Every structure is written in C-alpha cells, then in structure tokens.
TrEMBL record:
It catalyses: D-glucose + NAD(+) = D-glucono-1,5-lactone + NADH + H(+); D-glucose + NADP(+) = D-glucono-1,5-lactone + NADPH + H(+). It comes from the Bacteria. The lineage of its organism: Bacteria, Bacillati, Bacillota, Bacilli, Lactobacillales. Keywords: Oxidoreductase. It is an enzyme of class 1 (oxidoreductase). InterPro entries: NAD(P)-bd_dom_sf, Sc_DH/Rdtase_CS, SDR, SDR_fam. Its EC number is 1.1.1.47. It comes from Philodulcilactobacillus myokoensis. One of its GO terms (molecular function) is glucose 1-dehydrogenase [NAD(P)+] activity. GO terms for biological process: monocarboxylic acid metabolic process. Belongs to the short-chain dehydrogenases/reductases (SDR) family. SUPFAM superfamilies: NAD(P)-binding Rossmann-fold domains. The keyword Ribonucleoprotein does not apply. This is glucose 1-dehydrogenase [NAD(P)(+)].
C-alpha cells in the first residue's frame, strides 16, 4: 500500500475491462477516488464500479470517446464535480486490429491513431491544463506497448501509435518537469486480457507467443496495475520521462538467447 495515494483522485481511460479495470481495482485498494470512461461496454463499466464500491472504494463511470475533446473534458469535469480535484490521469484506452499495410484503409489508420495517440494527447492536455491552473504537481501515465520498440508487421498503425506515444511521453515529461509534473509510460507485452483471450485459448498461438517471452509465460493485468500504482505514488517521485516494460523480457531479443547469432 502507498499511503500517499489515499484520498487522491484519478481519471483512467478505458477502465471498464482488461488492464484498465485492473488498474482501477488496484488504485481503489490504495483508497483513491476514481473516474473512468467506457465507449461500448456499459455493462462492464457497471460491474467494475460495483466491484470497487463493494470493496469500499469510490468510482464513477462515464460514457466517453477519448478521441473527442468534449468527451475528455467531461471526464475531467466529472472528477472535479464528484471528488473536488485531479491528481492522476492515466491514458489507458487503446485498440488494435490486424491489417496488412498495403491493404489498410485510411479509415483503419485513423481509427487506431485517433484512440491510441490522439486520445493520449487529449487526455494529457486536459490533465496538464488542470495541473497548471491549480498549481498541482500532478502525474500522467500513458499506456504504451512493447511495440513502441518491437516492429509488428500487419499492425503498422498500432506500432506507429505506440512509437508516437513514446516520444510524446518523453517530450511532455521534459516540458513540464520544472513544474513538478511527472509523465511516464508503461509498455506491457503479452498480457492475459479479454482482447487476447481468444488467441491464448488456441494452444498453438499460446505457444507461439510464450516462445517469444524469456520468462515463458503470459503476464497478468494485476502485474501491470502494480507498476501503475508505483508510478502514481511518491515512491517513484524522481522518475519522469521513462517507459517501464512489463513484458517478461520480450524486449530483450530472445532470439539471441544462449549466445545465438
């Protein structure tokens, strides 16, 4: 437990399922007050709020599209109206779909970039303006991916969005460090989330994935959430502009294991 998080307020985008919900549940255990958005999964959002409240936490779910500035403002307004302040903003909402680049439509490209990169920009901008206006030494965490570093053929739009998120994170971390605002990223590898559930049920696809991971297992959402809680806390007070990889070693070039090459 991080005692300094008690009573603080966080906005988490994409908090109704997967990694976002795991982060929400972990921060609720830290006695934080939470606002998170959902886009299509209203029932999932309701279940997440119920879980948090049943454990004694406070949470509000908001229907919002993170690629729309007015909707992002609604998230901030909800946090301030319900809990009186903002201390932490986590840009977690994201999406992917597999399309060979030569067949990718402009609509495919824009849809992924709008959520993954524009959504990160809009969320960060909203948080930064609040922190600056209220002289808050706030905290922003952006959800990246191992594919900010590892190329991913047939997912060019996704990789581009995460590569962009990396330099966006580093740039604004430098831009606002003197104001006491910290900005970091988390880059998960293969995590057992709903988006991956079908793939990991197939024994061959599961083996193909774990073969790429030196620790030889799929990660858990709670392991990503643990990193988010640490970055949110004062235990990481001297950390900004960094990406923490939660990937079981996937970014360590496992093909070179045992001195191969």
């Amino acid at each position: 437990m991080y005692q300094d998080l008690k009573g603080k307020v966080a906005v988490i985008t994409g908090g109704s399922k997967g990694i976002g919900q795991a982060i929400a549940l972990r921060l609720a255990k830290e006695d934080m007050n939470l606002v998170f958005n959902y886009n299509s999964d209203a029932k999932g959002a309701e279940r997440a709020v119920e879980k948090i409240r049943n454990n004694g936490g406070n949470a509000v779910a908001v229907h919002a599209d993170v690629s729309e500035e007015a909707d992002v403002k609604k998230l901030l307004d909800t946090a301030v109206t319900n809990f009186g302040q903002l201390d932490l903003w986590i840009n977690n909402a994201g999406m992917e779909n597999q399309v060979p680049t030569h067949k990718m439509s402009l609509a495919d490209w824009k849809k992924v970039l709008n959520v993954n990169l524009t959504g990160t920009f809009l969320g960060s901008k909203s948080a930064l303006n609040y922190f600056l206006d209220h002289k808050v030494k706030g905290n922003i965490i952006n959800m990246s991916s191992v594919h900010e570093q590892i190329p991913w053929p047939t997912f060019a739009h996704y990789a581009a969005s995460k590569g962009g998120s990396k330099l966006f994170t580093e740039t604004i971390a430098l831009e606002y460090a003197k104001r006491g605002i910290r900005v970091n990223a988390i880059a998960p590898g293969a995590i057992n989330t709903p988006i991956n559930a079908k793939k990991f049920k197939d024994p061959k696809q599961l083996k193909d994935t774990t073969d790429l991971i030196p620790m030889n297992r799929i990660g858990k959402p709670s392991e990503v959430a643990a990193a988010a809680a640490w970055l949110a806390s004062s235990e990481s007070s001297y950390v900004t502009g960094e990406t923490i990889f939660i990937d079981g070693g996937m970014t360590l070039y496992p093909s070179f294991e045992e001195g191969k090459g």
